Amino acid sequence: SATGSAVAAQALGAGLPVVASRVGGLADVVADGVNGLLVPAGDPAALAVALARLTDPALRARLADGARASAQRWTWPSYAAALSTLAGDALAQAQRSRG
To answer: CA-to-CA distance for 47 and 35, rounded, in angstroms?
Structure first.
């Protein structure tokens, strides 16, 4: 299992498709067929099939394009923007609760 993977996000940022088990945060980072391939957890045969699929240059190129496009979600500026929004929402809620 996995709760998140900075390694997967870094791979996407480098334009590399990710092959991962459909567990935890990996399923949030990897969009099956878009920027990588997801396989059921604990299924080595499915993992082998997914890895073999990456030998197809057209699929690999399409997934690499998807990886680069989706990597924008995992940049430091996007993290900062999300954190700023979260902090602003928390502050507004705290101010409302004070009356």
So the answer is: 16
Token digits of residue 87: 């902090």
Please report which confidence band the pLDDT of residue 4 belongs to, taking 50, 70 and 90 as the band edges: low
Token pair for residue 46? 């499915």
Three-state SS annotation for 25-90: CHHHHCCECCCEEEECCCCHHHHHHHHHHCCCHHHHHHHHHHHHHHHHHHCHHHHHHHHHHHHHHH
Which of 30, 4, 2, 28 lies closest to 17, judged by CA?
A: 30
- Check: pTM over 0.85? Answer yes or no: no
Q: How far apart are CA 13 and CA 46, in angstroms?
A: 25
pLDDT at 70 over 80: yes
